[in-house]
Amino acid sequence: MLSALIFDVDGTLADTELVHLEAFNAAFAQEGLDWVWDVPLYTQLLEVSGGRERIHHYWRSVNAEVQDIDGTALHAWIAHLHELKTAHYEERVRSGAVRLRPGVLELIEAARGAGLRLAIATTTSPVNIAALLRAAMGPDWQLAFEVIEDASTAPLKKPHPQVYLQTLQRLGLPAAQALAFEDSSNGLRAARAAGLPTVVTPNAFTAHHDFTGALRILPSLQGVTPDDLRAWHASACAHAQ
Asked: Catalytic residue numbers?
């Protein structure tokens, strides 16, 4: 029986990636760097989960000849740069630059009314989650989600399944009683590694990904109902037996 829905955030609940890209570039400019990430480059960099990890990956690509002996100074600088980026992102979210994807809010409300438990499983930062969902759902947004797992509680990034395994543990449910919602290949791999049937709603940055193994691949959640989810889930469970 389907008991819970577990949502990724960036790209799944909202099309955030273009705003994240703008925030990265604003942070680079503020720090006096000559780095400018365009859409094709950022699409490639999204293969690396996590903002700090993305910066580190890019730093290594443009400083291949530099040897960082113990990494302490570099990690501190990357953390500072990521803090600047987060501040720029929050400012853009507050200004209304990001909205939930079509059908997301309606499905969340319908699922709650249908008695389904809701959770968030993301490897983005809690600050980013709060900025987005406070703007989209109001100050009491946390009341909609029984469990929230994020970068502060699950440091191993997707495609590692840690964030989903911890979410299921806190819900007290086996994977067979939940559905995950993702937008990327890394997210799908993480959810499937945790045993979760997964509905994927790709976006412009992830449409080219391999979504083999997804329960459904949809353009958005618009028009999707709890009854649809229960039927898809039942079908997946039947095929698994």
From this structure: 8, 10
